[in-house]
Amino acid sequence: MRKIKKGDQVVVRCGKDKGKRGTVLSFVDPDRLIVEGVNLVSKHQKPAPARGISGGIVEKSMPIHVSNIALYNPGTGKPDRVGFRLLADGRKVRFFKATNEVVDL
To answer: Are 104 and 94 in contact (CB under 8 A)?
Structure first.
């Protein structure tokens, strides 16, 4: 089980986009993920009329390392660390370490 999953709200902890908040779109590999609106780069795209792609300069989200982000805690309004806990029915769930509040039920 991962501490951060697809669809989570995260906050960037360091780098050029420090403090930005976004949603996890996908995982590139176990250590890198793509966050919406974070780590944007300008890419010069060649036109491909057969595929319906127009040329020009486009903004693209690049992967960011998982150690540079933290899960957003809506209760406190800040980024927070995540831990794991077993519930009474045997399920393993994530919880915020600052408030001991369960992330997903």
So the answer is: yes
Kindly state the tokens that stand for 66.
């998982």
Question: What is residue 26's DSSP assignment?
Answer: E
Rounded-to-integer distance, Cα 60 and Cα 7, Å:
19
Compute the distance between CA of residue 60 and CA of residue 40 in angstroms, rounded to an integer: 5
Go through the domains of the chain in sequence order and give each one's CATH number.
9-96 (2.30.30.30)
Cα angle 88, 83, 29; round to 5: 120
Nearest to 2 by CA among 30, 23, 35: 30
Average predicted confidence (pLDDT) for the chain: 93
pLDDT of residue 53: 86
End-to-end CA distance of the chain: 14
